Amino acid sequence: MTRTDDYYKQKGLFGRQPEPYQVQVRTDILDLLPDDIESVLDVGCGDGYITDALPEHLQVVGLDISAEALRHAKCQTRVGSITEIPFTDGSFDLVMANDIIEHLPDGEHAGALAELTRVATKYVLVTVPHREQLEAQQARCAECGCVYHLNRHQRAYDEKSLRDLFGGSLRPVEIRYSGDLTLSPPDPTIPIKHGQGFFRTWEKGICPDCGSGEQVAGNSDSLFFQALNAICCTVWSRTLRDQPRRNNRTEIMALYARKPTTRTPKTQQHEEKIGSPLDIDFSNKFQSVSLGFTLGSPWAQFHLPAEAVISAEGIGRAPDATKAVWIPIRIPVEAEAGDTIRIHASGSKGSGTLGLTCTDGISHIDRILFKKRIRSTDRCIEVRLPERLWSDQYGTILGLHLSGKVRVHRMSYEPAVRSRPETTFLRLRAGHNILYADRTEPAVSWGLTVESEGYYPQPDLELQRVDVE
Ligand SMILES: [Zn+2]
Fold this sequence. Notes:
- The chain is an alpha+beta fold.
- The protein is globular.
- 16% of the residues lie in helices and 32% in strands.
- 40% of the residues are buried.
- The mean pLDDT is 90.
- The chain folds into two domains: 3-257, Vaccinia Virus protein VP39 (Rossmann fold); 278-420, Jelly Rolls (Sandwich).
- It has a nine-stranded mixed beta sheet. Strands 12, 15, 16, 18, 21 and 23 form a six-stranded antiparallel beta sheet that branches. It has a six-stranded mixed beta sheet with strand order 13-14-17-22-19-20, with no helix packed on it.
- The protein has helices at residues 3-8, 20-32, 67-70, 106-119, 159-163, 190-195, 223-242, 461-468; strands at 39-43, 59-64, 76-79, 92-98, 120-129, 138-141, 147-149, 171-178, 215-216, 251-257, 272-275, 280-281, 288-289, 301-303, 308-311, 314-317, 325-331, 340-346, 353-359, 366-373, 379-384, 396-402, 407-414, 423-428, 431-437, 443-450, 454-457.
- It binds zinc ion (ZN).
- The site of zinc ion has 8 residues, from loops.
- Residues 141, 143-144, 146, 207, 209-210, 212 line the site of zinc ion.
């Protein structure tokens, strides 16, 4: 057993609760499956999360190098490697490898792709992380000093590299953007962070050189580290101003066919509206985060704590909340003195107050911008930032303080000196939403499963294409 095997054979690596990006990837794979197949080989199937969800009428086999992982799978399984698939030529109509080939070292990559092609009669489906900044996921071994990617990723992919993956032997039929909506733009401060000893850590990371699980990371509470994050966020805010629709995805997948197909991709129509990514509609669930903020988020976000509720009217305290509620907010903007913030809120006869604070991302000093009693319906409160504010890694820090029966509907942010970005938002419906840009071959699609209605910034597939060429 090589040291690399130790990483993939860890017990806790498989059979866990799927992460949201995995749920999205599985939905998109099921959506992309062609009608004219009877058998599927899932190479690197792991615990069978995708394999076990494939339609029952298909003859399905899951292949993985880890017998430990296969113990979780319910489908027919086989232990084996993508570099030497233990089946004869043309054994399956469709062969898929999801989040596998990015792990392969240079010497194995081409051979593995040839193996996928060899075993498939009609189709190959490949999923990979999209435009991953590999250096941002690097750890440093505490034992030997080796710097390695925590998930053992060896390379990054984009739309172009996926289109050209199989050269002339297979043609891409459809390329789909999938996974999370949270792909952050590249962090320009990574080389400085690494130079100063700041690295990532993960309890399941194992050094490929010495096998140690110990990592050194540097102190992320240090003022220097936080200043680097503030600079990084400033760069992202400027990019957003110049290219407002930089909304992006963490995964990309492609369906390849041996022969030309007559497949017509699905489409959906979405109602559009123009708005600024600096504004917040507190009734839009897509703009709220329940766990944590997103690095490089393309629009303003607010945290919805358990004591608050969201409705068509915006946010307010939950009926059973006993104390005032605190709503943290992050705005992707370079905040300057004189920037204007407008808040639309309403109250009722009973008592209730609304407060707004701002926080400097480096010094963490808070400042109360206003605190008012709200009695009337639809009040607009306007306030100007008294001084420049540094952001933290997620954006400019604001916070709302709600007591009583106050509800907050909207917030707008108007920079005093810089231009205000505007972008197109799409109204998504509950269910599986597919967005298409008109393409010839291959078709390019964007899949997003949402549980409720709401607006989301339109992805800019044109921009992504320009970026990759
Ligand atoms: Zn080591």
